[in-house]
Design goal:
- With 395 residues, the chain is α/β, with parallel strands linked by helices.
- Helix content is 41%, strand content 16%.
- A hairpin with a 6-residue loop joins strand 7 (142-144) and strand 8 (151-153).
- It starts with 6 loop residues before the first strand and ends in a 24-residue tail after the last helix.
- The structure holds nicotinamide-adenine-dinucleotide and sodium ion (NA).
- Residues 47-53, 71-74, 86, 110-112, 137-140, 222-224, 269, 271-272, 274-277 line the site of nicotinamide-adenine-dinucleotide.
Length: 395
């Protein structure tokens, strides 16, 4: 079939298998030329199909020949209906990994559930024995608690006061003011239940009790801080409370792994266009200005460059360069004083009229469509493609 992008608000309903494949192959090439010395060998990636998790899987597999198991929640294709992009990404990754003689298997289902955890554990026991790294990279709006069955929904709201600032609709380029009402009721607790550290801890507890974690095991989850501009809605909002909880969980995990010298870390990553971040008000305007400034300075990175730097210059380097709160920082270039000062200046000038000049709206849009395999260089979108692509290592 011929597949075209079909957008509704901040989501794209279709995705292109060849474009997704091309994105994965480019990431593989990048890591092949930037391998990791003494990198991981047997890796579980939870949230492995898109964004930072996919980049982590590729960096493990192609940076240090790691065997990888990927867990994700993606929609398979049906006749005439494309799969979700993470499906095609995983298909491309596992096809290439198998060609290259790398072990790569995956499990598609709800990582929050006891069933998927048990199935993953069995696969590790059957195929890998012990693993030396777990990457935790879930981004989800909902979680059903595995023990109580209670369904939690996360919200992206300020705490205490209404937040008013500018945002951009990146499809139309219109900049306008929006107001977000403060959270209420159980919003904070619910957001912590979805995006906090409880599920990460459950995974590690299960794997530890089954004795499948090797000596010097590491686990890493991803967090975000961002500038004062977005603070009220992000880091000091409901999602920020969940990130506080996730960061605190890293220390609890380290405590629970003392006997095998295991470590839990959080890495604070830079702001990037992903399905999750496009839905957060104010962030798209911030990102389009940030991209402009970072590209001008020659320090722009995508997911793969971020994770390559995380592995090669932090996790598997001499010095983790932890901050005062014990976190790894690969948002260091985003947060540089000169970069933030420039973004703040531009922010004051940003209007519908000025943004195409002073911001990188084009870069934002390109990245957004790239997430779904569209607007990818070298792909012929007029050519018929088979939507019924299989993931070769899917269990
Ligand atoms: P993403 O949407 O690209 O990836 C989410 C992954 O989680 C996908 O593989 C998806 O299949 C999987 N997933 C979602 N729900 C699941 C479920 N119930 N069971 C199994 N798998 C499920 O997101 P991302 O932007 O790569 O975010 C990953 C992490 O990085 C998040 O913690 C996010 O807060 C953090 N982070 C993101 C940014 C950013 O700007 N995008 C910046 C810093 C940190
Ligand atoms: Na991810």
């Amino acid at each position: 079939m011929i597949i075209e992008p079909r957008t509704r608000g901040f989501i794209c309903l279709t995705s292109h298998p060849v474009g997704c494949e091309q994105n994965v192959l480019s990431q593989i090439d990048y890591i092949k030329s930037n391998p990791t010395t003494n990198g991981p060998k047997k890796v579980l990636v939870i949230g492995a199909s898109t964004g930072f998790g996919l980049a982590s899987r590729i960096t493990s597999a192609y940076g240090s020949n790691a065997s990888t198991i990927g867990v994700f929640f993606e929609k398979p294709p049906t006749e005439g209906r494309p799969a979700s992009p993470g499906w095609y990404n995983s298909a491309a990754f596992e096809t290439q990994a198998h060609k290259d003689g790398l072990y790569a298997k995956s499990i598609n289902g709800d990582a929050f559930s006891n069933e998927i955890k048990a199935q993953t554990l069995k696969l590790i026991q059957d195929d890998l024995g012990k693993i030396d790294m777990v990457i935790y990279s879930l981004a989800s709006p909902v979680r059903t608690h595995p023990d109580t069955g209670e369904r939690f929904k996360s919200v992206l709201k300020p705490i205490g006061e209404t937040f008013t600032n500018n945002t951009v609709d990146f499809h139309t380029g219109v900049v306008k003011e929006i107001s977000i009402e403060p959270c209420s009721g159980d919003d904070i607790e619910n957001t912590i239940a979805v995006m906090g550290g409880e599920d990460w801890q459950m995974w590690i507890d299960l794997l530890k009790s089954a004795d499948v974690l090797s000596e010097d095991f590491k686990t890493v989850a991803y967090s975000y801080i961002g500038p004062s501009l977005t603070e009220a809605v992000y880091r000091k909002g409901t999602i920020g409370r969940a990130k506080d909880h996730l960061e605190a969980t890293a220390f609890e995990i380290t405590d629970s792994l003392k006997d095998i010298n295991g470590k839990g870390y959080v890495s604070v990553n830079k702001a990037l266009v992903t399905q999750a971040s496009s839905a957060i008000p104010v962030i798209p305007l911030y990102i389009s200005l940030l991209y402009k400034v970072m590209k001008e300075e020659g320090i722009h990175e995508g997911c793969i460059e971020q994770i390559e730097r995380l592995f090669n210059e932090r996790l598997y380097a001499e010095d983790l360069q932890l901050d005062a709160q014990g976190r790894i920082r690969v948002d260091d270039w985003e947060m540089r004083d000169d970069i933030q000062a420039k973004v703040l200046e531009l922010w004051k000038e940003a209007t519908t009229e000025t943004l195409p000049e002073i911001g990188d709206l084009e870069g934002y849009r390109t990245d957004f469509f790239n997430l779904f395999g569209f607007n990818v260089e070298g792909v012929d979108y007029d050519k018929d493609v088979n939507e019924m692509v299989a993931i070769p290592g899917l269990q």
